[in-house]
Amino acid sequence: MMSRDLSEEEGVGKVPLLFLSRLSLTDFRIYDQLELEPSPGLNLVAGPNAQGKTSLIEALALVSTGRLLRGSKDVQAIRHGCETASVEGILGQSLTRLTVELRRGTRKRALLNGMGLPRPSDLLGRLPSVSFSATDLEIVSGEPQDRRQFLDWEIAQLSPAYLRHLTVYKRALEQRNALLRQAQDTPVSASVFEPWESQLSDHGGALRETRTAWIDELSRDAAEAHARLGGGEELCLQYDIRDEGDVRSSRAIDIQRGSTSVGPHRDDLVIRVAGQEARYFASQGQQRTAVIALKLAVLAAAERHFKQSPVLLLDDVFSDLDRSRRSQLMELTLGRGGQVFLTCTEADQVGFELIESSTIFQVESGRVSRR
Amino acid sequence: MQFARPLSELIAQLERLPGIGPKSAQRLAFHVLRMPVDDVRRLAESLTRARESLRLCSTCQNVSEGETCEVCSDPRRDDSVICVVSEPRDIAAMERIHEYKGRYHVLHGLLSPMDGIGPEHLKVRELLERLRNDVAEVIVATNPTVEGDTTALYLARLIKPLGVKVTRLAHGMPVGGELDYADTATLLSALEYRREL
Ligand SMILES: Nc1ncnc2c1ncn2[C@@H]1O[C@H](COP(=O)(O)OP(=O)(O)OP(=O)(O)O)[C@@H](O)[C@H]1O
Ligand SMILES: [Mg+2]
Ligand SMILES: [Zn+2]
């Protein structure tokens, strides 16, 4: 209960601490059936390779955000040979029940206390979480699209309005692109383009504004975390608007290319480490450090926003990190209270004192036992 | 497995209907085979009669038995307001509340370039025609989807310069709905269209 005391010290003790008190999986990835009662503090998920640690983290991300980890498709998470999978979490204190059902051939479905929600994203904000997994390295090493996805997913957790702008923007973009291709064969009048473009410029403007403000908010925390983890190296974030132009004025060019050339769907988040663009120049360890620093900044922002600690999901966070970076990371993540799930191959990787205060789950080919 | 020709023909016809896949088509076809012949005849007749006697009202484009529909031929309705909907079934919904006293106009769809639907596929020209007479307000009651909103924008840009007021139906919380279970899009739109008490 160390976390409770900590939040009271910070003056947010009135808000009940959010944590997952129970997790049940059915035919999710390697698991046929699993019931787990995690602690509100640190949960260590330990076990050899390919036993089901990442799967467990992914299940937690799914009930919390309605989505799997970066790079996974819904159907892949259904256990081989099964038609459906389900993940259910129960929140501590409120006993709210969050459920996500995956089914081959249809869209996933989210439920709140057994009642269907209109969209899986309507789960967002009920059990806020910040996750780190191996595929998140793409945030630094990948394409602009991977970084936009990072911005969009993380901001959507904090702001339903942002998610709404994003949904409308993406749809209007598809529609305008269809219109552009149509205009290659037969002329389309300006009055038909205009309403779509007005949607794009309204909602696109809101997306850019929110992204810029959020990156500003993230910058300081990310730089600070990075300095501690990375032995003083400077991390710098910058929202890069590729083209400030108005979507209407690029219509002629866009008709030629058959797609929309300006707008937030082309922007990027530039990440620099020690002055160099990390995408091209950072080493494995530097990339990992930069992504972790970003995620820690997301965590700090979410903490301010929700006035409580989100659940922290850390998969395989230690590999590629040297001893000093590891211990800095442990201090940064565990000093703050809140529920944490952390995977590692051997529990003693986290250090002796932490083992004492944590709940250890040993994973072995889809079975989990409490140690 | 091969069905007798009339049966496989029936299945093929049913499959062409929207929302009916091969399995449901088969199920419906076998159901028809078990129905009394008189019932089948009545069904076939009402299909033909509906198709033959119904047409689009020459004024509002709603489905109608005669040249003009019931609403358009009712002299007590207010000519100065036109409520624009995307489908005929939306009129039925509005009429159920017995509050709206103006006229209607059915677009028969929404703008959607992805589905190849432009203004020329909708009853937009017919709407503009009607605005030549004394119309003070057009209420756009399309659904609050991206296509519904964009179609509303398109119409507003077309109609406003004619000096006609254009309003949009507010969309918000279902009455009696619980805040907790509402989708966030609905909540956001309810907030956007809030009014002073
Ligand atoms: N849909 C599925 N159905 C059945 N098994 C699956 C499915 N998806 C993944 N698996 C299997 O589950 C096993 C556990 O995967 P997971 O990624 O959870 O392991 P891990 O414990 O995180 O391993 P590592 O330490 O190597 O990261 C893998 O062998 C994988 O092949
Ligand atoms: Mg793993
Ligand atoms: Zn009529």
- Average pLDDT for all residues of chain A: 91
Category by helix and strand content of chain B: alpha/beta
SSE succession of chain B: HHHEEEHEHEHEH
Shape of chain B: globular
Whole-Å distance between the termini of chain B?
67 Å
CATH A-level architecture of the largest domain in chain A = 3-Layer(aba) Sandwich
CATH architecture of the domain at 78-168 in chain B: 3-Layer(aba) Sandwich
SSE string of chain A, helices as H and strands as E: HEEEHEEEEEHHHHEHEEHHEHEHEE
**Oligomeric state of the chains?**
heterodimer
- Gap between N and C termini of chain A: 19 Å
Helix content of chain A: 40-55%
Per CATH, the class of the largest domain in chain A reads Alpha Beta
- The CATH class of the domain at 78-168 in chain B turns out to be Alpha Beta
| Mean pLDDT across all amino acids of chain B | 91
Strand content of chain A: 15-25%
User: Total number of β-strand segments of chain A?
Assistant: 15
Low-confidence stretches of chain B: none
* Helical segment count of chain A: 11
TL;DR of this structure?
The complex is a heterodimer of chains A (371) and B (197). With 371 residues, chain A is α/β, with parallel strands linked by helices. Chain A has helices spanning 2-9, 53-65, 138-141, 144-158, 160-185, 190-229, 251-257, 278-281, 284-306, 323-334, 352-357; strands at residues 20-28, 31-36, 42-46, 84-91, 97-103, 109-112, 115-116, 129-132, 235-240, 268-273, 276-277, 311-314, 340-344, 359-364, 367-370.
Question: What does this protein look like?
Answer:
- The complex is a heterodimer of chains A (371) and B (197).
- Chain A has 2 domains: 1-128 and 311-371, 3-Layer(aba) Sandwich (Rossmann fold), CATH 3.40.50.300; 139-309, RecF/RecN/SMC, N-terminal domain (Glutathione S-transferase Yfyf (Class Pi), Chain A, domain 2, Up-down Bundle).
- Helices cover 43% and strands 21% of the residues of chain A.
- Chain A is built from 11 helices and 15 strands.
- A 6-stranded antiparallel sheet of chain A has the order 2-1-4-5-6-7, covered by helices on one side. In chain A, strands 8-12-13-3-14-15 form a 6-stranded mixed sheet, with helices on both faces.
- Mean pLDDT of chain A is 91; it is low at 1-16.
- Chain B has 197 residues and is an alpha/beta fold.
- Chain B has a domain at 78-168: Dna Topoisomerase Vi A Subunit, Chain: A, domain 2, CATH 3.40.1360.
- In chain B, helix 1 crosses helix 2.
- The longest helix of chain B has 17 residues, at 37-53.
- The radius of gyration of chain B is 21 Å and the shape is globular.
- The A-B interface holds A 112, 115, 117-119, 121-122, 124, 160-161, 163-164, 167-168, 171-172, 174-176, 178-179, 182, 188, 191-192, 194-196, 198-199 and B 111-114, 116, 118-119, 146-147, 149-151, 153-154, 157-158, 180-181, 183-188.
- Bound molecules: adenosine-5'-triphosphate (ATP), magnesium ion and zinc ion.
- The site of zinc ion (ZN) has 8 residues of chain B, from loops.
